[in-house]
Design brief:
Blueprint (H helix, E strand, L loop, with lengths): L1 E12 L5 H6 L1 E11 L2 H6 L8 H14 L5 H15 L5 E8 L11 E8 L1 E9 L4 H13 L4 E6 L3 E3 L10 E10 L3 H14 L14 E7 L4 E2 L4 E2 L8 H10 L12 H11 L7
Antiparallel strand pairs: 1-2, 2-3, 3-4, 5-8, 5-9, 6-8, 7-8, 10-11
Helix pairs in contact: 3-4, 7-8
């Protein structure tokens, strides 16, 4: 990935735990590495197809100088998030906040915090079998897209399927979404649970009827196995109602454990797996 580098941008600001720091202020220095694709700009010599580092410098200077936080950890976190949200061509940022005038009664050169934050590719499955199913799924997609830390990139068409499991219930509508997010996996899990609750999802019966079901299928190529979260989704390779919509938007995405593409997994299920998709 290409890099645009900003070194030692000086910002006079008022961050600090102590009252005198908030009142008197001090110099902070910002280093940033902007991760992006510069190839088109390099070939076409066109500022419009790259991230203008002058604009980024001005943005960082204004953000760091106008806001007040106690910790430079917070300065770094909030600044990185704001830059990534406001400069859409960036894939990520490394940001270092240096505080050379920190109130330390020892000889030192500088203190600093350095973080790296990236946009992540996430695939979600969607499902609903209570009420206006299509409207509920559209609501979920809109709720995610309205969140500044999420960007919907693709959505499959919706497929009707019979219910998975042994509970007698109405047919489902199922789909899949590709989005980019700044949330960590656990933060994203909390976010989609909030959306499910806002759509009146109740978790009373395992594999029971639900107004809205949102599952994380893939998060980049991470492999996570905890009591609360498993990525890739533990049973997605056996579910045609997950694989068929997913194959519409990500046929060549490779399952990081099974080492097969989504399309290959879907073909496997079509040949010998259980069938739930009706149309």
């Amino acid at each position: 990935m290409d890099e645009i580098i900003i070194e030692n941008l000086r910002v006079y600001a008022y961050h600090g735990v102590h009252k005198e720091e908030n009142e008197n202020g001090q110099n902070f220095y910002v280093n940033a590495v902007l991760y992006t694709d510069t190839k088109m700009a390099g070939e076409e010599d066109d500022l419009e197809v790259t991230t203008n580092y002058s604009s980024v410098c001005k943005f960082i200077h204004k953000f760091v100088s106008k806001n007040v936080f106690k910790l430079i950890e917070t300065v770094a976190e909030k600044t990185a998030e704001a830059v990534l949200i406001n400069f859409p061509l960036l894939d990520g940022i490394m940001l270092q906040i240096k505080k050379p005038e920190a109130p330390i009664k020892l000889e030192f050169q500088s203190t600093s915090v350095k973080i790296t934050r990236m946009w992540h590719d996430v695939y979600l499955s969607t499902g609903s079998n209570i009420g206006n199913k299509q409207k509920t799924i559209e609501y979920a997609i809109k709720a995610l897209d309205n969140d500044k830390k999420c960007k919907i990139k693709k959505a499959s068409k919706l497929f009707r399927s019979t219910a998975y499991g042994e509970v007698t219930q109405d047919d489902f509508l199922n789909g899949a979404i590709l989005m980019k997010t700044l949330y960590t996996p656990n933060e994203l899990l909390r976010k989609i649970h909030e959306i499910e609750i806002s759509a009146k999802r109740e978790r009373k019966q395992h594999w029971g009827p639900r107004t809205l079901d949102l599952d994380i299928i893939f998060y980049d190529d991470l492999i996570i196995c905890t009591d609360s979260l498993q990525i890739p989704h533990v049973d997605m390779q056996n579910r045609d109602f997950v694989l068929q919509p997913l194959s519409q938007i990500a046929p060549y995405f490779v399952h990081p454990i099974l080492k097969k593409t989504v399309q290959q997994l879907y073909e496997d299920v079509k040949k010998s797996g259980e069938k739930y998709i009706i149309e």
